[in-house]
Amino acid sequence: MTSVAGFLAAAVQDDHGWSATIPADWLQGRTAFGGLSTALALQVAKASEADLPPLRSALVAFVGPLAGVVKARARRLRRGRNAAFVEVEISSEAGLGYRATFVFMADLGGNLAHDTLPPATDPLPIETGHGPDGHFTRNLEFGPSAPMAAGWRRWVRLNEWRGLDAEVAVMTIADALPPAAFRLNRGASAMSSLTWMVNLLHPAPTTHDGWWLMETRTERAVAGHSSQHMTLWNAGGVPVVHAMQAVAIFG
Fold first, then answer.
1. CA distances from 78 to 23, 75, 103 (A)
2. Domains of the chain
3. Can you tell me the distance from the alpha carbon of 127 to that of 135, in angstroms, rounded to the nearest whole number?
4. Where do the Acyl-CoA thioesterase-like C-terminal domain residues begin and end (predicted)?
5. Residue 187 has pLDDT above 80, yes or no
6. pTM of the full structure
7. DSSP states of 45-59
8. What is the DSSP string of 59-89?
9. Across residues 138-153, what is the average pLDDT?
10. What sign does the dihedral 6-10-11-13 (CA atoms) show?
11. What is the enclosing helix (H) or strand (E) of 182?
């Protein structure tokens, strides 16, 4: 198995951007797991600008399949006094496969304080397991799945998380659960993520022993399209990511 840190360390920079090879054990069907693509994109974005403030938000479009050798390029959209917007595109022989806009922004201070996201009280898992051989989930360790009618809630961590940049680690793991709509038809239809909007609630989030509690739930799945919300808590029960994803349902 290939660690995320190993994959990122093997990426090569030249005058035209970055090149990397998607490991076969990180494929999700015929494309790279979206978290791995995002890890590469975020590393490329961070390397393109000096002294970036913390990552606050990401707008991701999963345009097409990514496999084999891929090329990643970063472009500054704007950098002001407080915020930097960096766009990253990843392409393969099949063409453009991924585009993301990362927003890095300094703490603005202020007196406003409003938070309705509940803390989590789920205990860390005692019994854990891995995904099947030949699938990207083999690189992850999962706790038991809590019962949900239209979604998933479970503890997840990377097999090898040590040494990863905190923001890269969170963005890698935050899309690790299957689309929530799988719960509605027991996986009878193929599904594919289309877009992903991610807000980081804390700069440089941390957790204990690599564990993150994840929940994804679909509010509406009609005519082949699902809209789902996603939340990520650290091991102390503090919400650190709030996200939304559009999913296509084929069949």
1. 33, 9, 10
2. 4-106+134-250 (2.40.160.210)
3. 21
4. 134-248
5. no
6. 0.95
7. HHHHSSS---EEEEE
8. EEEE-S---SEEEEEEEEEEE-SSEEEEEEE
9. 92
10. positive
11. helix 182-185
